[in-house]
Amino acid sequence: MADEVILLDFWLSPFGSRIRIALAEKGIKYEYIEEDLRKNKSSLLLQMNPVHKKIPVLIHNGKPIAESLIAVQYIDEVWNDKSPLLPSDPYERSHARFWADYVDKKIYEVGRKLYTKKGEEQEAGKKELIEVFKLLEQELGDKTYFGGDKLGFVDIAFIPFYTWFKTYETFGNINIEKECPKILSWAKRCIKIESVSKSLPDQDKVYDFIVEIRKKLGIE
Amino acid sequence: MAKVEGEVQLLGVGGSPFARRVQIALKLKGIEYTYIEENLRDKSDLLLKYNPIHKKVPVLVHNGKPIVESLVILEYIDETWENYPIFPQQPYEKALARFWSRFIDDKILPAISKAAWTVNKDEREKGIEESLQALQFLENELKHKFFGGENISIVDIAASYLAFWLPVIEEAVELKLLTSDKFPKLHKWSQEFINHPIVKENLPPKQGLLGFFKSRYAAISATSK
To answer: Which chain A positions have a beta carbon within 8 Å of B52's beta carbon?
Structure first.
């Protein structure tokens, strides 16, 4: 029986990008459906994710899986014949889950402060984001990827935010390469991988979109 | 299946629902462990060594290696000790179980906190509305005796806060959220859960918890005047 895989997503979403990378790593064919977040939520989205009403949603043979890190683990467990995304050792897995969670809880929300806030709130956001990156840099250490020799769960969780670096740097007036050079070199290694580069939006397009959002929100 | 050997320690705090989650799982699987009670106002060197990033309990230490974050710990326990599985085995069911556990932690608990730990009427109203909405989703999910079916599973363990801590908080702050008329299934579930033989042995004493929550609420009321 052929698998039917659908990804309900928005091009900009770092969370959707994670699922795109995982599907590409596993060589899974899928239908991509773009949800236009500027319009009213589609009936498909409301049906497939009634609890959060958010993208991304992975739909496998009609069954929806919401929350990107849950979807990535699901992909790893179902298509377990190639390209493992998580380590096999339980301790290493718990380590990967911890750091993926850390990325999930910290980067998007803190990063947002850099392009939506001003003054003290923005300053606090800048400081926190650099601290978060430095901690991740420490965790990376001298490894090629967070997953070791190959792309793993934490790499997949984190790399989509690379496309937001220009946005963070421009509005936040920070220099990520200067503060965390290892993070930059890690990111550049990741985007050389085809499944990553073809799954991520263009950094300039992300930046232009945020410029538009700021105009709409009246931020100067 | 070879028994996994090794020394297991759990750093926790008696009243913490997150630490109790781990204890329940360890007891369900019959895993021997040493419990170390932490004082969160005077964190031990051990805690700071094992959880330098968040400096929180619970921490599970297995053969000297620490695992933190209760839901991550529960996945580790289930993968390491395969008897009495607490996660479903089938990938889709497992994904759903992860989803609902996260929902409890990311949506239900913060909404309840918002409703409980405020004297501001508007904030409380907002918190109550969010809590009721979130609880309704969970109510709709409950189809058997437990979220896991006939046996306790990860979602039941994650929801233990609702079965035991929430009623104590409701009493302490004069709030009614998880009532039997609004949430008949969840209410029935909570009675089944706290009377489960293993769970019963692993809950903190109610009086102590009530006193703790009452003084917390009194402190908030005092500073708001």
So the answer is: none
The residues, ordered by sequence, that sit 6+ positions from B87 with a Cβ below 8 Å of its Cβ are: B74, B75, B78, B94, B97, B153, B154
Measured between CA atoms, how close is B157 to chain A, in angstroms? Answer: 18
Whether A45 has its CB under 8 Å from any CB of chain B: the answer is: no
- Rg of the Cα trace of chain B? 18
Residues of B in contact with A90 (CB under 8 A): 76, 79-80
Mean pLDDT, to the nearest integer, of B201-220?
A: 95
A49 at interface of B, judged by CB pairs closer than 8 A: no
Residues of chain B with Cβ-Cβ distance to A70 below 8 Å are 95, 98-99, 102
pTM over 0.80: yes
Q: What is the ipTM of this complex?
A: 0.95
Q: How confident is the model at residue A181 (pLDDT cuts 50, 70, 90)?
A: very high
For A34-88, what is each residue's pLDDT tens digit?
A: 998 888 899 999 999 999 999 999 999 999 999 999 999 999 999 999 999 999 9
Contacts of A51 in chain B (CB under 8 A): 103, 137
User: Quick check: A189 pLDDT over 80?
Assistant: yes
Cα distances (angstroms) measured from residue B165 to each of A16, A134, A179, B93, B112 = 36, 37, 43, 27, 11
A71 Cβ under 8 Å from any chain B Cβ: yes
Q: Hey, what domains does chain B have and what are their CATH numbers?
A: 8-80 (3.40.30.10), 91-223 (1.20.1050.10)
Q: A37 and A139 share a domain?
A: no
Report which DSSP code applies to A145.
B
Q: What's the mean pLDDT in A189-214?
A: 96
Residue A44, domain extent? 5-78
Out of B62, B72, B94, the one facing A97 most closely (by C-beta) is: B72
Residue B2 scores a pLDDT above 50: no
Task: Check CB contact of B72 with chain A, cutoff 8 Å.
Answer: yes
Radius of gyration of chain A (CA): 17
Same-domain check for residues A117 and A44: no
Is residue B27 classed as helix, strand or coil in its secondary structure?
helix
